Predict the 3D structure of the following.
Amino acid sequence: MNLPNVIGIKNIGSLLTISANDNCVKTLQDMNNLSIINDAIMLFDVSIQWIGTSAEFENVSSQFSVTEWIDAKGKVVMPGFVDSHTHTVFAGNRSNEFAQRLQGVSYQQIAASGGGILTTVNGVRTASQEQIVTNAYSLLQSAISFGTTTMEIKSGYGLSFDAEMKLLYSIREVASISPMNIVSTFMGAHDFPEEYKHNHSGYVSLVCEEMIPAVSEQHLATFCDVFTDKGYYTLEETETILSKGLEYGLLPKMHADELATVHATELACEIGAFSADHLLHVSQKGVEALSQSKRTVATLLPGTAYTLRLPYAPARTLIDNGAMVALATDCNPGSCFTENMQTILSFACMNMKMSIEESIVASTLHGAKALGLERSKGSLEIGKDADFLVLQTTNYADIVYHFGTNLVEQTWIGGKKHFQKQLQ
Ligand SMILES: [Zn+2]
């Protein structure tokens, strides 16, 4: 009889399995329960084959052929981070604008002088696909070193047919060369381009009649996302775009109520969006809608509030009311330039009053749910993908406590090691 060949990891001090209930999502009560197994062993190939304590392994060891043993030396093993909201394909650098803002120049003044998002749009339109891919690849490698194993990436800095397609081709290309699990989102409705500044309906038609059919035909994205806010897309325009997306098989997501209360969150829940993101100005009705939704995840992006010095989203209210809360970086060149999920967990605990455990569930299992991947990602359970981290600590609380450092010692994706920290 041929035994399955597996890799084993032993002497795991604490294995955070984050194992889920039937919905693959932690409920209000158990977001603080990481389903920890102490003195654990985990066996895997591309997916997880067995999990249990060292003592339990004695009884099953004859059923496996372990080709290699990794010694975790009592440290923590946990699922890789699922960063479910990023804008990692872009060109150019806006550090000058960031410095100006620190000097008191407003975002509006920068935008009026041709800066802001237009800087990145111009950068993308003139850059080659190769330049965009090179830039994204280095961010992805860095994200892997900080423990991200699945990342969603949005287009949205092109805002013309050709430039949006170039960004989506770049996502496809970087996904083919990076070990990161990548989910692609079409976000032609990120803003209105200069040439359609006074013709919003013309641009909505371009998105619906030309971009969405092309994206769908070439299988370039799983999701369609819209920036629904004051001065951006109205509820009606959002509904038009997301309905057209659905017609073409693109699943809905929304940037909702970031700058003002426009009741975007309620619409997200009504149409069954996979997530409503940002939520800095979510209304009480929006909180209620998220609490009742079995589909729509409340994705919070505290790095953006930090960078823009905005008030944080009401994470405590959302969690206490039973909403499914996820955390993501929002990695982008304008309002939050980080690919490090550990930093985001720190912001969530320090500035949004989340517990360390809640921040871990939000950045793994709930991130997976926001991408519709909760059956294969986000927790360590038999049959799920072997995407996990070995931390450089015996106590998971250090991720938040020992902030500003990289606590990831190893990153494994699909059963292969893609990052190993050089220890002193
Ligand atoms: Zn965003």
